[in-house]
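Extended Data, record Alanine racemase
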Amino acid sequence: MAGSNAVTSTAQEPDTEPETARAASAPEAPSSVVASPSSAVAPQAEAVIDLDAVAHNIRILNEHAGDASVMAVVKADAYSHGAVPVARAALAAGARELGVATLEEGLELKHAGITAPVLSWLHTSDADYAPAITAGVELGLSSPRHLAAVVDAARRVGETATVSVKIETGLNRNGVSHEEWDDFLVDLARAEAERAIRVKGMFSHLAHADEPHHPVIDDQCERFTRALDDAKHAGLVPEAAHMANSAATLTRTDLRFEMVRPGIAIYGLSPVPRMGTFDLRPVMTFRSRVALVKKVAAGEGVSYGHTWIAPHDTIVALLPVGYADGIPRALSGRFDVWLGDDRRPGIGRVSMDQVVVDLGPDGAGVREGDIAVFFGNGERGVPHAQEWAEALDTIHYEVVTSVRGRTVRTFVGGPDGPS
Ligand SMILES: *Cc1c(COP(=O)(O)O)cnc(C)c1O
């Protein structure tokens, strides 16, 4: 199961109007737990996840992958989009395999009944690998210690663990180091002969993938190819080599090998924003309902510290979403929302639970209960996650993975049809 800070999920039409009868009869319930679509009022903070956009993005990636197969990376709860529904949508649209960071993430997919290959690649060497081996989670190996632990667990449960070797080629994070490589290959061949493991893949990760012409990419590719040769000489012939993340999949077809490993592009965000959208469609719309509309007189301050003072009489809207839900406080006064058919500036400090936007003196016809979009598809003036990334001096990966707290996920579209 996802971690305790995960957003809750529900499948319902995003535009469901609040049911007025509910408030009178419903017992007290935590606001972040939506019991069922029929008893739910539209969420105050909501991440609408468009599974048809996932399918579209997988098709784009498959086109770029050519003969290589696509491993859809759904780590970190599918970049906070919901691992199981995104995984199912990606597989239905043509992804062949799934990639995650941790054993728990791999087990969550297997326990949900997903039968496609799932590779998990970031572990401590003292982890308990037995449940993952039994459940059929494939394991990335990054050192002789990791290999020994997996072999030990495989012997204990009496099964063959399917493994992929993560090779250090220049990122200098996770991966078998050059110094340990020769000994590692000896151990690996021995373990495979013993049938404790089956070596299915060899992979590596790029340091400069978002700079398609960077010379380090070629260095890494050369080291990777050499390591594959070493493995071959040790009698190991894995069926799949892979090193391309989203950026490399879309910009360096020479790095396809047998499989590509895109993550962010599945979620419709360009891995190289300055090169355009690659026709990807953003999957997440982060939005909220207007809790309150009120007048603020000229000279009055809004929110903590009164960092914004009304320059004239105006009307503001209160949105019940704050930094605990994924709107960084550093965005105070530096973001717009889409509301009442136009962009409205966020004013004053972002607080834990709420933000305020200025509607102007006439209020723009906005009413309590209307929907405001923090970021979404970026079309016709709707803000895009990349805008937040630029304002915050970060990348959109961090923007979408920060959506949390009381935000409720609503899935639309997908392989099972409209929800
Ligand atoms: C996260 C990750 C990916 C996906 O990267 P994107 O830039 O999101 O496409 C691929 N491979 C590994 C090893 C990763 O950790």
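Summary. The longest helix spans residues 215-233.
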